[in-house]
Specification:
Radius of gyration: 17 Å
Shape: globular
Structural class: alpha+beta
Number of domains: 2
Distance between the termini: 32 Å
Helix content: 55-70%
CATH architecture of the largest domain: Up-down Bundle
CATH topology of the largest domain: Glutathione S-transferase Yfyf (Class Pi), Chain A, domain 2
Number of strands: 4
Order of helices and strands: EHEEEHHHHHH
Low-confidence stretches: none
Largest sheet: 4 strands, mixed
Oligomer: single chain
Number of helices: 7
Strand order of the largest sheet: 2-1-3-4
C-alpha cells in the first residue's frame, strides 16, 4: 500500500492528507515527526523533512510535489482549475501558503502547541510580535483575495483552498481566531473551509491528538 510519512498536525502533511481523502486514495500513514526520523529516512526524503510519499512507482518529498503527482496520477476529482490562468493563480496561493503563511502562522502553532506537547514553554513575546506585526499583513492580503461565497475557484474545495486552510487550522489550535469585524470576507471564508466535511474531519482528528482541546 502507498505510504505517507509524517504526522497529521503538520500543516504540510495535513495538506497531503486532505488531497488523499478528497481523491479517495488508499494509503497508510507512517508516523514520522520532525524530531524523530527513522534510520534511512533520507532515502525517501533527502532533506529529512515531512511529508514524504512512497508508492509502487515513486518516492517523493515536499507537499507540493506530492500533491501535483497525485493530481496527475489520479485525475478524478480534480483539485486544480482547468483554465491556465486560474491554475497559475491556484499555484500562487499554494506558494504563498508554503512560503509566507507557514513561517508566520506556523510559528504561533509551534510556540503555543508543539512546544507544549514536548513540555517546553512558549515564547509568548515572539507570538505577540507575530500576531501584532506579521499576521495582520497576511490577513489583509487574504481579505482582498477571499471569495464572497464558496471557495477560491468555485463550489468545490480545491488544493489552493486546502493549502490555506491547513495553516488556519493550526492557528485555531493555537487559540487564535480571525476577527470577522476586521476581516469579514476572510473570516467567512475560513468558516466555510472549516465546515467542509473533509476539513471538519481533519480538525476532529487533530483534537483527539490534542486531548480534545
Amino acid at each position: 500500500m502507498s505510504k505517507l510519512y509524517g504526522v497529521p498536525l503538520s500543516p504540510m502533511v495535513r495538506k497531503v492528507l486532505l488531497t488523499l481523502e478528497l481523491k479517495q486514495i488508499d494509503h497508510e500513514l507512517v508516523p514520522v515527526t520532525p524530531f524523530r526520523k527513522p534510520e534511512g529516512f533520507e532515502k525517501i526524503s533527502p532533506l529529512k523533512k515531512i511529508p514524504a510519499w512512497e508508492d509502487d512507482k515513486v518516492t517523493l518529498a515536499d507537499s507540493t510535489v506530492i500533491c501535483e503527482y497525485l493530481e496527475d496520477r489520479y485525475p478524478e476529482h480534480a483539485l486544480y482549475p482547468q483554465a491556465p490562468e486560474e491554475k497559475a493563480k491556484a499555484r500562487w496561493f499554494e506558494e504563498y501558503a508554503d512560503t509566507v503563511m507557514l513561517p508566520v502562522l506556523g510559528t504561533v502553532f509551534f510556540e503555543r502547541v508543539a512546544r507544549k506537547l514536548v513540555n517546553q514553554p512558549a515564547d509568548e513575546v515572539k507570538v505577540q510580535e507575530i500576531l501584532q506585526t506579521k499576521l495582520p499583513t497576511t490577513c489583509a492580503y487574504l481579505e482582498s483575495e477571499a471569495p464572497e461565497m464558496d471557495f477560491l475557484f468555485g463550489a468545490d474545495l480545491q488544493l489552493a483552498d486546502i493549502a490555506l486552510a491547513t495553516h488556519f487550522i493550526n492557528l485555531s489550535h493555537a487559540g487564535v481566531q480571525i476577527e470577522s469585524a476586521e476581516y469579514p470576507r476572510l473570516a467567512a471564508y475560513i468558516d466555510r473551509l472549516f465546515q467542509h466535511p473533509a476539513v471538519a474531519h481533519r480538525i476532529a482528528e487533530d483534537k483527539k491528538v490534542l486531548g480534545g482541546k
